[in-house]
Write a structure and sequence with these properties.
This protein has helices at 27-33, 45-50, 101-120, 139-148, 172-177, 199-216; strands at residues 2-3, 12-17, 20-24, 62-63, 71-74, 77-81, 87-91, 131-133, 154-158, 182-185. By secondary structure, it is an alpha+beta fold. The chain folds into two domains: 2-94, no CATH class; 101-186, HUPs (Rossmann fold, 3-Layer(aba) Sandwich), CATH 3.40.50.620. The protein has a four-stranded antiparallel beta sheet with strand order 3-2-5-4, with helices on one face. A hairpin with a 7-residue loop joins strand 4 (62-63) and strand 5. The chain is globular and about 55 Å long.
Length: 217
Amino acid sequence: MLVTPQHTLDRINLINKDGVLHASNSLAFLLQQADETLDQSFLFYDSYMASIREGVRRYRRRLPTACNVDVQIVYYSNILIDSNLSFTSIPKTRSPEFLSFQAYRDYLKQTIDSVTANAVNSERRISYKPKATVSRGYDSPAVLALATEITEVEALSFSTSRGSIGDEDCGKIIAELLGVPVRLFDRLGYRDRVDFPEIENAMRLWRREFLIKDFNE
């Protein structure tokens, strides 16, 4: 079972090639792993990828490749794969209708409880300690506050945000008021790492190489 996000800002891409089913939330990594490339004569990748704006029932579900093996795109569904490597998309369960704030609060708390129970389950090969991001917005403090009613949790926050000076969006003070330990991170600290490439730059270079090659041809 593969599980897509509970939103349509991301997806799972799949390609079945030479008896192997590859799946990834990164189209670029999927193509690399499957030794496949996009069809540079196809002019509509951008509109196909943007078609999710028309909704989960109307978006383009296939992308052509250079070798005529389509990449299949799945949004907002659980993907059940059988022993023959064929798969079925199972739509997500819709949220209930909330008739009161308390009903909404209980639903959020139940969801956090389920996620936490899954993460710390002793039957998992790798278990995870609950962590939550926190800023001075609304969403993350609300989730953190609910999480503290369920389990011990560690908060994570950026010391500064959006390149500005000061800690105007740092969630440290909120975490401390909730009695939650907090770890602060430099927003651009990843640039100092030498053990992992900067994926964003790698993707930018890949796109630029693709476009240059396409225009030259």
